[in-house]
Amino acid sequence: MNKNLRISLGLVFVLAPGLTHAAVVGDADAGKGKSLICAACHGTDGIGTAPENPNLAGQVPGYIADQLARFKSGQRANAIMLGMAAGLSEQNMADLDAYYSSLPAKRGAIPEDSVEAANRGAGLYRGGDQSMEIAACMGCHGPSGHGIPTRFPRVAGQKQTYLVNQLQAFKTGDRQSDGRIMNSIAFLLTRQQMENLAALMHAFQ
Ligand code: HEC
Ligand code: HEC
Fold it and tell me: Residue of the nearest CA to atom 16 in ligand 1?
């Protein structure tokens, strides 16, 4: 990453509201070295190696560092990631964030048996549901699921199983989001709707 870009990213971090690690600027090259230990599960290219392991490549800058801090503090409860994050400093988290967000994101794909499900998820994703007071997912995750730095994660091309797991965890409260945004949304979703939405998000390019 050239120096100017690093400075401008730093500015974005400082100006972004709600970001907890504003002072630490990540270095993607340093992050690459630190990512070796993550590769078994998140791939050498940032693409998860199992359906439960999320892709990290191309994630919006800021989000990965934020989630690592949540795993470390236990605010986001996950036994594996608690162990992985426990030894990471803020600088480590920022470097890993800079590295993974610089990698090319997974291009979405739509398995033949998911086409119908994805189509059924599209209405809710794009328009929400007024009668159930579900906000359109698009408003925060973007029309094609690319997310909005630094707070709203990329969901495009993400593993279907991982996405359903997260929606389920938001619904039960096992995973908390700021202001309970995702909890109050997922609370209203049926398992079928979660699967439809996951098929759609997975398919986004
Ligand atoms: C043994 C497997 C394993 C290893 C090694 C591992 N992870 Fe994970 N990681 C997971 C799993 C499983 C999840 C999903 C947790 C959940 O369902 O909440 C996850 C979730 C994450 C998330 C949340 C992503 C999101 O979209 O919210 C981040 C960020 C992350 N890992 C980063 C890392 C980093 C950085 C390392 C290396 C320091 C690492 N992981 C090492 C298995 C692993
Ligand atoms: C008002 C903004 C907002 C809306 C609307 C919204 N989300 Fe989210 N979403 C978030 C935020 C913020 C997070 C990060 C959660 C956290 O704090 O850890 C998130 C996280 C997620 C995640 C976890 C991603 C990951 O990598 O772990 C999924 C999946 C998701 N949202 C799906 C949806 C779906 C499906 C909808 C529509 C039914 C939706 N979201 C609507 C704000 C929103």
Answer: 78
Q: Is pLDDT of 100 > 50? A: yes
What are the distances in angstroms from CA 101 to CA 23, 108, 173? Answer: 18, 17, 27
User: Are 134 and 125 within 8 A, CB to CB?
Assistant: no
Point out the ligand nearest to the CA of residue 204.
Answer: 2
pLDDT, tens digit (0-9, with 9 covering 90-100), for 106-122: 988 888 889 999 999 99
Sole residue written with tokens 């079928």: 192
CA terminus-to-terminus distance, the chain: 25
Nearest bound ligand to CA 56?
1
181-205 per-position pLDDT tens digit: 999 999 999 999 999 999 999 999 9
| Nearest C-alpha neighbor of 160 from the set 122, 123, 117 | 117
In terms of C-beta distances under 8 Å and separation of at least 24 residues, what long-range contacts does 35-38 make, across chains too? 35/96, 35/99, 35/100, 37/84, 38/84, 38/96
Q: Other CB atoms closer than 10 Å to residue 65's CB: what's the count?
A: 28
Distance 166 CA to ligand 2 centre (A): 9
Q: Which residues of 72-102 are buried (b: 16+ CB within 10 A; e: fewer)?
A: beeebebeebeebbeebebbbbbbbbbbbbb
Residue 154 zone, left/alpha/beta (φ > 0; ψ -120 to 50; rest): beta
